[in-house]
Write a structure and sequence with these properties.
Layout lengths: L2 H13 L9 H7 L16 H16 L4 H11 L5 H29 L4 H6 L16 H12 L2 E6 L2 E6 L1 H4 L8 H15 L3 E2 L2 E2 L3 H17 L6 H17 L16 H11 L5 H15 L6 H19 L3
Antiparallel strand pairs: 1-2, 3-4
Helix pairs in contact: 3-4, 4-5, 5-7, 9-10, 10-11, 11-14, 12-13, 13-14
């Protein structure tokens, strides 16, 4: 698979990712609460001058183009001495560095795993099991995979090959060291990385669960109107909404022959439209009206309307910025 194709798939995975039996209002709102994660020890702050020294050393480590594992080792050693605001800075930087190294680590894994040893061990697993790193025979490959998992990455199976991606569930171990805004941001990212919704052109989760995730992102955007990751979350929302309204190649929202909208999709739309105080609900109400006015047929006119509604939703969310 070409690098450009990998990057495209990777972005889709990181941006949009447990099907629920229904998408009723109470079920969605219950899911809005972050699930508890294992966090590091409580913070024991040091004096301001020592904090300044730590942050200066951290800045030098970042600027020296160190790999994520080196940055993580420093963070683990020092983050409990700092305030949550300084913790935000550390997690902000380590996330950026991890993303910067994705392409390099991808090339390394593909080069070392030419014999597809990882697939032979893991089979159809969506993620390479961390507890099976010990089973890798090739020493260089084992060392590289071990380094990745120690650096808070994991390997995901795409088209019969394993590729590195950021494991946000592991980054959530710093939840005690960051502000609520970052906790909620990491929760959204972990939700998508734990269970990628879109692989090989198909939706792996139900439309109800996709709606649930869409509402979570909107809730974040409405709560943190000048958030550090607002632009990224706006893109996250846009991509989720586009898939929700239009479907994807291997998971269309309508019957491929009759073009009539699938009942489960329409039911999900109805559930979201009845929720109060969400832009998504307003958008879904208008979309349902258009669909019903078209005798439940999804054609080019409806898909064009979907694009218009996506733009409307983004404009409304941007008004709060």
């Amino acid at each position: 698979m070409g690098k450009s194709r990998y990057i495209t798939i990777f972005i889709l995975i990181m941006v949009i990712i447990l099907s629920l039996s229904g998408c009723k209002k109470k079920q969605i709102e219950k899911e809005l609460e972050n699930k508890p994660v294992q966090s590091k020890e409580p913070i024991e702050e040091v004096e301001d001058d020592e904090k300044a020294k730590i942050m200066e050393e951290f800045s030098n480590i970042v600027k020296s183009d160190n790999e994520p594992i080196k940055v993580k080792e420093f963070v683990d050693k020092n983050i409990n001495k700092l305030s949550q605001l300084e913790g935000n800075i550390m997690i902000d930087e380590i996330e950026k560095i991890m993303e910067e190294y994705i392409e390099e680590y991808t090339d390394d894994i593909l080069e070392l795993d030419k014999k597809s040893e990882l697939m032979k061990i893991a089979g159809d697993e969506i993620f390479y099991p961390e507890d099976r790193i010990k089973d890798i025979k090739d020493d260089k490959l084992k060392e590289e995979v071990s380094k990745l998992y120690d650096s808070m990455y994991k390997l995901i199976n795409l088209d019969g090959k394993f590729y590195p991606m950021v494991d946000y569930a592991k980054i959530q171990s710093y939840n005690n060291n960051v502000t609520d805004e970052w906790k909620e941001y990491l929760g959204i990212k972990a939700m998508d990385s734990n269970n990628p919704p879109l692989i090989d052109g198909g939706l792996r989760i139900g439309y109800d669960e996709l709606a649930n995730r869409l509402i979570k992102v909107e809730t974040y955007l409405n709560k943190y109107v000048i958030g550090e990751r607002r632009d990224e979350m706006l893109l996250n929302y846009e991509n989720k909404l586009r898939v929700y309204l239009k479907g994807v190649d291997n998971s269309p929202i309508a019957d491929t022959k009759t073009k009539k909208i699938n009942a489960n999709v329409l039911n999900s739309y109805e559930d979201v439209s009845h929720m109060e105080n969400y832009i998504s609900s307003h958008i879904l109400y208008k979309y349902i009206e258009s669909i019903k006015g078209n005798k439940n047929i999804i054609d080019e006119s409806i898909l064009k309307q979907a694009e218009n509604l996506i733009e409307e939703a983004l404009e409304m969310l941007s008004e709060f910025k």
